């Protein structure tokens, strides 16, 4: 049976969303998937980024580790997992710009039937984690993705996360995702992989 191909596209400024992305990748790999981790790029220049402590340095570091997501990555994937910090209760412009750039594949119908899932983080309590994840469901539906939420299908879900996807609250970037939150993210990776395998996996031939 072929490996499921999982694309994880995220934007992260202060590493919380990045840590969730890496945990999702771990879960997917554990479940037998081939994974591509990609970081969406900034839409503003260094002059703007320097106004926020650590933004430029973190961006340079993460961009050195992760390639920018491409249209070819989305076409390659059996499943696409989007991750974002909240921006006023909704998706970050950096991730949204990548999604908006998938119009060519959408027009050709090449995203229809792929698995889609979401995760995210926010700086403050009640800062929009759930509304942000739900806001991404809308363009995913337009792209033709089969949306896969987490529900409460694993014991980890009763300790952290949301039924819509893995989440984290960083409390003004003073707290990193703990093991409970990372366990939810790893479960998300496994769940997405299992659904992608069921939809796109090749069944091994059985001799008569």
Walk me through the structure:
This protein has helices at about 15-30, 45-50, 55-65, 70-75, 95-100, 105-110, 130-145, 180-200, and strands spanning about 5-10, 35-40, 80-85, 115-120, 145, 165-170. Helices cover about 40% and strands about 15% of the residues. Helix 7 (about 130-145) links the parallel strand 4 (about 115-120) and strand 5. Helix 1 crosses helix 8. The protein has about 210 residues and is α/β, with parallel strands linked by helices. Strands 1, 2, 3, 4, 5 and 6 form a 6-stranded parallel beta sheet that branches.
Give the secondary structure arrangement, pairings included.
Blueprint: E1 5-10, H1 16-30, E2 34-39, H2 46-49, H3 55-65, H4 71-76, E3 79-85, H5 93-100, H6 103-108, E4 115-122, H7 129-143, E5 146-147, E6 167-169, H8 179-200
Parallel strand pairs: 1-2, 1-3, 3-4, 4-5, 4-6
Helix pairs in contact: 1-8
Strand content: 15-25%
What's the β-strand tally? Answer: 6
Question: Could you tell me the mean pLDDT?
Answer: 94
Taking the alpha carbons of the first and last residues, their distance comes to 18 Å
Low-confidence runs (pLDDT<50, min 5 residues)? none
**Helix percentage range:** 40-55%
Order of helices and strands: EHEHHHEHHEHEEH
Counting DSSP H or I runs of 4 or more residues, the number of helices is 8
Classification by helices and strands: alpha/beta
Largest sheet properties: 6 strands, parallel
What is the overall silhouette? globular
- Radius of gyration, in angstroms, nearest whole number: 17 Å
């Amino acid at each position: 049976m072929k490996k499921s191909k999982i694309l994880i596209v995220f934007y992260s400024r202060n590493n919380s969303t990045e840590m969730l992305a890496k945990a999702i990748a771990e879960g997917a790999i554990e479940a037998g998937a081939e994974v591509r981790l990609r970081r969406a790029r900034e839409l503003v220049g260094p002059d703007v980024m320097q106004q926020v402590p650590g933004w430029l340095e973190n961006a340079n570091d993460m961009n050195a580790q992760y390639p920018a997501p491409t249209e070819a990555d989305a076409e390659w994937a059996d499943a696409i997992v989007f991750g974002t910090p909240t921006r006023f209760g909704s998706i970050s412009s950096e991730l949204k710009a990548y999604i908006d750039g998938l119009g060519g594949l959408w027009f050709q119908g090449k995203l229809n039937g792929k698995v889609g899932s979401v995760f995210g983080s926010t700086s403050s309590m009640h800062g929009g984690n759930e509304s942000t994840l739900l806001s991404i469901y809308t363009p995913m539906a337009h792209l033709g993705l089969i949306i896969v939420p987490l529900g409460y299908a694993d014991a980890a879900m009763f300790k952290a996360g949301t039924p819509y996807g893995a989440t984290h609250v960083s409390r003004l970037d003073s707290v990193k995702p703990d093991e409970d939150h990372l366990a939810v993210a790893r479960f998300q990776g496994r769940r997405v992989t299992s659904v992608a395998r069921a939809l796109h996996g090749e069944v091994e031939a059985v001799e008569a």
